Amino acid sequence: MIITTSRKPSQRTRSLVNDLARVFNFKILNRGKIPLSELIENKDDMIIVEELKGNPGRLKIFNFENNKILSMNLSLKLQREVSGKAFKNSGKLGSKFDKNTEHLKEFFFEYLFKKLSNYKEENFEVVITFKTVDESTFYIEVHKGSENMGPSLKIKTVKILDIE
Predict the structure, then answer these.
(1) Full-prediction pTM beyond 0.85?
(2) How do strand 137-144 and strand 126-134 relate by DSSP bridges?
(3) Strand-pair partners of 158
(4) How does pLDDT run along the chain (164 residues), one tens digit per residue?
(5) How many Å apart are CA 20 and CA 80, to the nearest integer?
(6) Ranges of each domain in the chain
């Protein structure tokens, strides 16, 4: 899976892309002047980190099998802000949803987890946790054992969009 940014990303957006690439073992595409239409034509599964007011503000996960996009508005803390270090996941990755985020499990499996070669339903070393803040907000965090490794994403809205 490829991860990239909107054009002319800020340093904070590039840092988030690097953090996510290290955790999920994504390939980073330095977008440069590549138009979005060209990225979509390739039909490679991808994630685009978009900016709002100069900061990473939206994550779009493209699913070309269903011709849909999982779009999430977010705020975040980078790995260096959460754990003080850059964490590279070289092991198996799993997920854990609390009772209030359980309904999101199928979306994240369909759009993200089933496309990862290192994702396992059990016997994993690193866990992506989904936990509720309130009825409209939840966190996605990366844990190894009991330690939060970062990044920590606070998701405010989740929408399913059509790829046009």
Answers:
(1) yes
(2) antiparallel
(3) 72
(4) 899 998 889 999 999 999 999 999 999 998 878 888 888 888 778 999 999 998 999 999 999 988 999 999 999 999 999 999 889 998 899 999 999 999 999 989 999 998 888 898 888 999 999 999 888 899 999 999 889 999 999 999 999 999 87
(5) 12
(6) 2-162
Cα–chain center distance at 139: 12
CA gap 122, 87 in Å, rounded = 21
Residue 26 DSSP label: P
- Cβ contacts of 55 within 8 Å, gap of 6 or more: 10, 12, 13, 75
Break the chain down into helix, strand, coil percent, rounded to 5: 25, 45, 35
User: In the structure encoding, which two tokens stand for residue 134, read together?
Assistant: 């309130």
CATH of domain 2-162: 3.40.50.10480
